[in-house]
Amino acid sequence: MIIVMQPEAGEAEIAAVEARIRAAGLDVHVSRGTERTLIGAVGDERKLDPEMFDPLPGVERSMHILKPYKLVAREWHKASTIVDVAGVKIGANAVQVIAGPCSVETQPQMDAAADGVAAAGARLMRGGAFKPRTSPYAFQGKGVDGLCMLKDAAARHGLPIVTELMDVRMLDAFLEHKVDVIQIGTRNMQNFDLLKEVGRVDVPVILKRGMSATISEWLMAAEYIAAGGNHRIMLCERGIRTFETAYRNVLDVTAVAVLKRETHLPVIVDPSHAGGKAWMVPALSCAALAAGADALLIEVHPCPPEAWCDADQALTPGEFAALMDKLDALAHALGRRIDRRAAEVESAALAR
Amino acid sequence: MIIVMQPEAGEAEIAAVEARIRAAGLDVHVSRGTERTLIGAVGDERKLDPEMFDPLPGVERSMHILKPYKLVAREWHKASTIVDVAGVKIGANAVQVIAGPCSVETQPQMDAAADGVAAAGARLMRGGAFKPRTSPYAFQGKGVDGLCMLKDAAARHGLPIVTELMDVRMLDAFLEHKVDVIQIGTRNMQNFDLLKEVGRVDVPVILKRGMSATISEWLMAAEYIAAGGNHRIMLCERGIRTFETAYRNVLDVTAVAVLKRETHLPVIVDPSHAGGKAWMVPALSCAALAAGADALLIEVHPCPPEAWCDADQALTPGEFAALMDKLDALAHALGRRIDRRAAEVESAALAR
Amino acid sequence: MIIVMQPEAGEAEIAAVEARIRAAGLDVHVSRGTERTLIGAVGDERKLDPEMFDPLPGVERSMHILKPYKLVAREWHKASTIVDVAGVKIGANAVQVIAGPCSVETQPQMDAAADGVAAAGARLMRGGAFKPRTSPYAFQGKGVDGLCMLKDAAARHGLPIVTELMDVRMLDAFLEHKVDVIQIGTRNMQNFDLLKEVGRVDVPVILKRGMSATISEWLMAAEYIAAGGNHRIMLCERGIRTFETAYRNVLDVTAVAVLKRETHLPVIVDPSHAGGKAWMVPALSCAALAAGADALLIEVHPCPPEAWCDADQALTPGEFAALMDKLDALAHALGRRIDRRAAEVESAALAR
Amino acid sequence: MIIVMQPEAGEAEIAAVEARIRAAGLDVHVSRGTERTLIGAVGDERKLDPEMFDPLPGVERSMHILKPYKLVAREWHKASTIVDVAGVKIGANAVQVIAGPCSVETQPQMDAAADGVAAAGARLMRGGAFKPRTSPYAFQGKGVDGLCMLKDAAARHGLPIVTELMDVRMLDAFLEHKVDVIQIGTRNMQNFDLLKEVGRVDVPVILKRGMSATISEWLMAAEYIAAGGNHRIMLCERGIRTFETAYRNVLDVTAVAVLKRETHLPVIVDPSHAGGKAWMVPALSCAALAAGADALLIEVHPCPPEAWCDADQALTPGEFAALMDKLDALAHALGRRIDRRAAEVESAALAR
Fold first, then answer.
1. What is the pLDDT of residue C344?
2. To pair with D250 at 20 to 30 A between CA atoms, which of A19, A132, D53, D347?
3. How confident is the model at residue D46 (pLDDT cuts 50, 70, 90)?
4. In chain C, what is the straight-line distance between the N-terminal and C-terminal CA atoms, in Å?
């Protein structure tokens, strides 16, 4: 950490800053420039915080030199983490696609969705049983019944399931119903008590980026989970909030490139929530893959116009299968491949 | 709700939209323009959602005409709501000031803080026992012990207390320790399960605005609480996230003016978190009051440089008392007044 | 400037950074920490730029310690600048109000506007003869004829005029028609050729903040003008662009407080463009004044519903006079006053 | 246009709105709902503006149904525009790459840059002779001398040139030196006088997106150029300003997909300015191509650490050639191809 003193700071003020650094167990290095004196704290600066120094007399500002995250940082863990979800590997060279409807509605809907997901060759299924809705009057999800429907539909094709946990009190139900991947949604990225709890279980977690969370805040949220002992964390970019109103969110592909450098954790992209319209999903999926995503999270519904939630962003099974073919070609051009279930793809191809 | 059809939309597509509106129990009004056909839904459009229409063939886009909030809307409840907190009224002509440290540290610290708050004449006390921290390695709050320290310190001066609830599992402890006002923090504004729970209790709630929440999302979060039966809700603007990096957040005074028009709920402003620096607090407090705030939430610490959290934004008791005097003069110029505890102010004035 | 080396940087890489610092004429100060080596450049770091170091091998990142602006910085010019506009002083304790219509339409409209402005006691008049419009099909302003109408209308009451310059080729016409204050609009804040030209003339300049300009970029734009020799610069906050869609812009009152600390230049606020609605103007004007603004720029039109531009944000002369009274009371509570033309105010008061 | 009346609006107020619509030559269609009366304007609503109605008594708000742009809209011009720059086609199936240094420095630097650009097979060359710099003390570009250097260097390989015009007074020099494509930079996107002037010449224009310009504002800026008679317009996405500070800008790939639907104009992406770091350029280039970009604008410098401007974002000729190979593979997977100069690529491949 560097503390920048005000131009008129005197020796007593410099000494007070030095004392506070030493009190925290770090060494001090003073540099007297022509316009400012800088005081460096030598040692593990993660014990320090700018607010320890900024209110002291004579201090102009102080700043960290190191990034605040450690367990999730690539600096401290060079090899990329590969998360194994019931045998499906996320973070390896092969790219995974997680697909399914926004929300669980009925067993027939989920069965049809699972058929479409599997037929296109995706190896993981998603579906929301607990839904974070802006309006208290909107459909709030099927709850535990929805978990069962999702699990049953996916089991017919051997697909591990991904579903969102909103309330810490439901974690036991998630464990009991053997949810394969717990998703922490955008609005809960900094629900720290929830992060602490999923940090204590042995289930992989997808941590979605908060709507306006910086990379640093997002990685610190992941650090909460890792600090609890659960290192099977995947980050999911889902579009950020900006000034633009022509589309719901701005898919931040720069974040994908930056995350691959800053952290060893796998990076997933959700192109469906980002754009908010089904017609944007293919272009955004391709862009995400090209930017380096390890997996995609795509909404697929057997009949989008009838969907109870986010109807406008789901692909039909046919559109999804066509997109999988396109992604496959793109992945090969990038030296990767889509990890597809071979047999079912074949039959799907026949059916098209 | 208005559904705008694509220029090439045919009669069958128009009929399908009409059918869907009627199926929801509303009437239909069609307007054929020179470039577009518009279909209006006549009735309670809150039953409808753009995503019910946008995926239908021939639809360009659809839009709500009415605001989505109802219980919290001034349109449906013209009189301003006044929330009574143990006899202290928020939302009336007299302006309240809620003051205290960012976090509860020790009983002596809380006692000194309470003395300073009371001496300056504020009628409510704040203090965080559960702290939402970006880093898992930072001080996370004193927990239930902190609640007790806050309650005890405030009780000596008869000050009702305001403190943040982060985890739904702690709600019983809040009730047991007779927390007078439950604060829902920025990061939990859309923690819908938490909102539902505080909607079921009979304790006033301060709902802070999410870091990048729109007015509409914020009021819908308040609607969650109101829909549960708890109508003693206060909104607190605390700065929004923008592109600017010279200060932590941008205090959105326009929101204050807009909220006073859109909702009947009291509007509070937190100038301390908004700016992030103690020296900004007086200017931002004055601006908030001038914009129409019903209350201010100000951080005061007996010794800011020693604070365990947000040290750089707390006022000393002396600075706070001086600010109260300034706010008082300003309030009178605006035709309002600061609701101050007369006797203690006098002794404070003597002490200065 | 501090250059942070990567953890694995070797001696040769450190030496290369040192050499580059010395080549620019500065001294070097190396600090070897436990996790990083830091290299400090001692001397006038304004000669250096992070991009001189960031591409060098072994460099992690580099950062300025000093602010980039100098002529406009309070650090180098402690006393507040007072800009004298034909005898009207902006930046002193007395607060100025600049009022008038968004755009110059006709001579009768301008005469009526000037009457209203003067009657309420404002001492400067605004009006746009050249209009930056989002649409090429919208009214683009009356041009030089408009300058004459504005000048004539204002002259009847001895009001100096403020009007926007968009095109560097019109500067001579502005000088010829004796425009008292040249306004540089939001969209031209970084039109550097225009800034250079107004830096060469002896006419005060109001520099509006770009829609998403940081404080630093804004002050550097002012530095362009100052570097040309024109030090009569005033900064005008007019709302920034954010994610919020419920109102046009977010008036950034925090910027007012920060600017008063960072620069010696006067700070003006335009509450009319910020909110975009006439009903918001009183609240935003009061907030701006309370935050420390030296002047306000308020739209007044003799008949707002008939205005050719921004009709929805102009006050009527009556509303404006009432606001002036309110601002006056507020200014006194803040230890300032509104600089009002006494005689005409009296007659206006009689007329109400 | 739809005008929404307030719930309490009476017949006289509705009649006033109707009268104003009819006065503009449009028909009226009234729809009386259960909570609001809506008044539709039937005809060319581009003659109307919300501000014509919002200030009228009884009006709640009014909104456009149609997009404001016309000449640049795909709705009115279904076929994609292909801009021919001295025989190089932008907007067709083959993707173009425009490469070169940020700024023109010396003739040897430009010659070396041109060699690298041509060797990698790019068909257009960029270089800045007039530089928009945040600081008045930074290098401002070589001016007209720079134009000559760029033209000469590019001519040796038959590359048409792209360079930025900042000042309307330099347009004649641009025409005289036969600049092949005029670039309008981010900071000048709404410099309307500049747009009008380039609208009058017969030279293709690249219009970069303003740092926080919406899609609608951007297309309206293009409409300014088109309205002047120049239809050879290309749009260039270069990253937008957001809350994120970990990288300079957020490359908005969603904009690419949306623009391809909204407008018939070619869409270019500048991955170099977006990320601000050379190591990000490959990932962002691939993402842009995958999202549907028609061309890329990439910074290449013979020796990036020695560049006078934006040194940290330029690729070396070798890195650029490798990227071209990668883009080529990707383009083929997308059913497109990179338009590369065959012969020189061959020799470049040999040289690697």
1. 56
2. A132
3. confident
4. 60
Cα–Cα distance measured from residue C216 to residue C187, given in angstroms and rounded to the nearest whole number:
17
C184 belongs to a structural domain: yes
In a domain, A69, yes or no: no
The structure tokens listed for B23 are 């199926």
Residue from the list D214, D247, D292 with its beta carbon closest to the beta carbon of A245: D214
What average pLDDT does the segment C173-189 reach?
98
Report yes or no on C51 lying in a domain: yes
Q: Is D69 inside any structural domain?
A: no
Phi, psi (degrees; rounded to nearest 5) at C100: 150, 180
Q: How many domains does chain A have?
A: 2
Dihedral (Cα; D118, D121, D123, D129), 10-degree rounding? -40
pLDDT the model gives residue D310: 82
Q: How far is CA B298 from CA A290, B285, B310, in A?
A: 48, 8, 12
Q: Do B214 and C280 make contact, defined as CB atoms within 8 angstroms?
A: no
Looking at the fold, whether B227 and B92 belong to one and the same domain comes out as yes
pLDDT confidence of D44, banded at 50, 70, 90? confident
Flag the least confident range among B158-167, C265-274, C306-315, D166-175. Answer: C306-315
Q: How many other β-carbons are positioned within 10 Å of the β-carbon of residue D335?
A: 9
Contact yes or no for D253 and A287 at CB 8 A: yes
Cβ contact (<8 Å) for D190 and C187?
Answer: yes
| Tokens standing for residue A11 | 């020796």
Same domain, D276 and D150: yes
Question: What mean pLDDT is predicted for residues B84-91?
Answer: 98
* D162 shares its domain with D301: yes
Specify whether C151 is located in the same domain as C254: yes
What pTM does this model have?
A: 0.96
How many whole angstroms separate alpha carbon D209 and alpha carbon D201?
21
Based on the fold, state whether residues D121 and D27 are members of the same structural domain. Answer: no
Give tens-digit pLDDT for B190-214. Answer: 999 999 999 999 999 999 999 999 9
pLDDT tens for each residue of C24-61:
999 999 999 888 999 999 988 888 989 899 999 999 99
Distance from CA of B55 to the nearest CA of A (A): 5
CA distance B190 to chain A (A): 6
Indicate the residue type of B322.
A
**DSSP string spanning A74-138?**
GGG--SPP-EEETTEEESSSEEEEEEE-SB---HHHHHHHHHHHHHTT-SEEE-BSS---SSTTS
Q: Does residue C25 contact residue C63 with C-beta atoms inside 8 Å?
A: no
How far, in Å, are A242, C209, C263, D273 from residue D250 at the CA level?
10, 22, 30, 10
Task: Using CB atoms, pick whichever of C31, C34, C40 lies closest to residue A33.
Answer: C40
Which of C309, B64, C246 shows the shortest CA–CA distance to D38?
Answer: B64
Low-confidence ranges of chain A (pLDDT < 50): 346
CB of C151 within 8 A of CB of C117?
no
User: In CATH, what number is assigned to the domain containing residue B51?
Assistant: 3.30.70.1140
Pick the closest to residue C136 from B349, A163, D72, A57 (CA basis).
D72
Q: Which residues of C touch B250 (CB under 8 A)?
A: 240, 242, 250, 252, 254-255
CB atoms within 10 A of CB D144: 15
Question: Is there a contact between D309 and D131 (Cβ–Cβ < 8 Å)?
Answer: yes
Distance from CA of A14 to the nearest CA of C (A): 17
Instruction: State whether B215 and C246 contact (CB < 8 Å).
Output: yes
Weakest mean pLDDT among B210-214, B227-231, C343-347, D151-155: C343-347
Nearest residue in A to B217, CA atom: A134
Q: Which chains touch A (3 or more CB pairs under 8 A)?
A: B, C, D
Q: Examine the predicted complex and report whether its ipTM is higher than 0.85.
A: yes
Residues B132 and B250 in one domain: yes
Q: pLDDT tens-digit profile of C76-86?
A: 999 999 999 99
